Amino acid sequence: MSAATTPSTPGADGIFVAPLVVEYPYKRTVGTLLSRFFLSLQEGRLEGTRGSDGRVFFPPAEFDPVTGRALDEWVTLPETGTVTTWAWQSVPQPNQPLEHPFAWALITIDGTEVPMLHAVDAGDIGRIRTGSRVKVRWAAERSGGVRDIACFDLLEEAS
Amino acid sequence: MSEADGIMRLRQPISVTYNWSAGPNATSHLNGLLAGTLIGKRCPSCSLVYFPPRNGVCPKCARVLGDDVVVGPRGTITTFCVVNVPFLGQKIKLPYVAAQILLDGADISMQHLIQECEAGDVRIGMRVEPVWKDRSEWGPSLENIAHFRPTGEPDRDMGVEAGAS
Amino acid sequence: MARRDVAIVATAQRPNQVGSTLTSVELILPVINEVIEKLGIERQKIGFWCHGSCDYMSGQPFSFVAAVDAIGAWPPIIESHVEGDGALALYEAWVKIQTGECDVALVFSNGKTTSGPIDRILNLQADPYMVTPLWPGFDSLSALQARACLDSNVLTEADMAEVAARSYRDALNNPIAYAKENVTAEQLLARPYVTAPLRAHDCGVPVDGANAVVLAAGDAARGLAERPAWIRGIDHRIDTQRLGARSMTESFSTAVAAHKAGVGDDRIDVAELHAPYTHQEILLRRAMNLGEGTHINPSGGALVSNPAMAAGLARFAEAAESVFSGSADRVLAHCTSGPMLQQNLVCVMEGE
Fold first, then answer.
1. Is the minimum CB–CB distance between C132 and chain B shorter than 8 Å?
2. Chains with ≥3 Cβ pairs under 8 A against C?
3. Nearest CA to A34 among A8, A2, A10, A57?
4. Is the C or the N end of chain A the one with fewer CB within 10 Å?
5. C26 located within any domain
6. Distance (Å, rounded) from C-alpha B42 to C-alpha B47?
7. What's the mean per-residue pLDDT of chain A?
8. Residue-range definition of the domain harbouring residue C30
């Protein structure tokens, strides 16, 4: 951790206030199962794990929610999914997936049951709805992580 | 990022910017540092003088500290250690001495650096005085004092008081 | 083991404000001293101190250690800290009293939300691999939950605005509330979205606040308060951390906690619900089956002043005060933690 303050001068009320920047350069060790998962993202593949009841988890569950046993059956998934709920980020904040207005969405990847959080580059709030079909847009440079998925794009709706 | 053991390490730098307030009870202390004066505060209940005035409260009595008290600039070493271990972000040449210094007129010691003498000569009871940086480098900070150095006065007998404060 | 009867006997809250220049210790000290003065007891009578706060909000690891300066911890005291809302610290203090190790406990919490980017800071408690790197923030996560509720006809935007209008109007009678306005739901619906489907009024206002509550057991409680608020049931439950695996339209953890706390055993006069978003109040009311006879958040609730990490304990203080004053006999206090109602603590209190 590092912390830095800049010397300040007192405000109108005489009280000293200064910017304080706190930084934690974390490097997380993710374990064997998630290592494979993040490597697959780096290679441009969606991979999930199958639970004892047949459900497929994406992102993969490390342990079976029913039996608690370590999961090791991998399933390669398509790059498409369905929006189950969404919200509109009209003013993007620092470090978020897109720098222009976009939708947050819970997205159920085809072949799975539990949705994941990501961003959808819908362009306009009027273009997205619950049920919209979306497809992965891969990041140009990938390093193993959820940001290897840059965002999701809307698929053209069949009328 | 994958390493030789096949386990991924995710780099996840986190940075948060705050607007840090020193609080109203620190104002006179910080203004004092800007003027080259060491100002502590006295607890209205137990009369102890705190330098620096911590969070503006007496942690023994849970009272907001009261009157400003000019302390020091000279003081006495109550305890010290010789630092020989390098660590990230270290700015001072090894070995150096970090000491608790009880400024004259204060009841609670503060930590600072001892320089201008051999580490082996530093002792409990040694009298020291601040060496200020050039005024152009001053801010509202104890870093205005580059370090403390021995005054050459006779040692003070700290007795059982040493380390008690 | 038979449960000890434990009650809230006194509370103190500082007025909620924005942009406070006080340090955390300076925020806390007055409420601790106020609640002790109200009781007129010696500090040494307090057998246990428990603090709720979040270091990330202070920007200082182990900031809670500095907070001990506000206690007057001499001679040494028995103290604990919860990295979370003060209501969770109250739960720990209640357990401590149950062990028989003390009879009187003081619980306090502080939340200084306006000295840093609070939405970004709270995001740090999300899944560090799949969620935090996207930096969604609580407003956008809550907006996903609200949309799911709207899409499944659990509630409407008008229902949400009605919650806000009632809260803003009730806050007019609460001297420590921050946001207050004589406004109608219709007027609020005419205002723009912030993070659609949420408008500004749907999101609790981040403020700086601090509060303290004293718990006491049996005869100690009877000696300290004219009408103690006796804790009849208290329970804390958590839903899965995995955002997509949780129901967006029901709060199961609240329903279980409410059942365990005995909410449904009798009528509830006043319910202070920690709902930082309008739709969450509706989900909580549904999960606990709170009907027309229950006055929800007469204080204005966390919508009008949301000092994160102190807003839950504030609900306990408000609910207990309504018992002290005699305006209510059976009350409910609730605290939530985490995004989208992840954790829920429910407590039922009664006057005698």
1. yes
2. A, B
3. A57
4. C
5. yes
6. 6
7. 91
8. 6-117+206-229
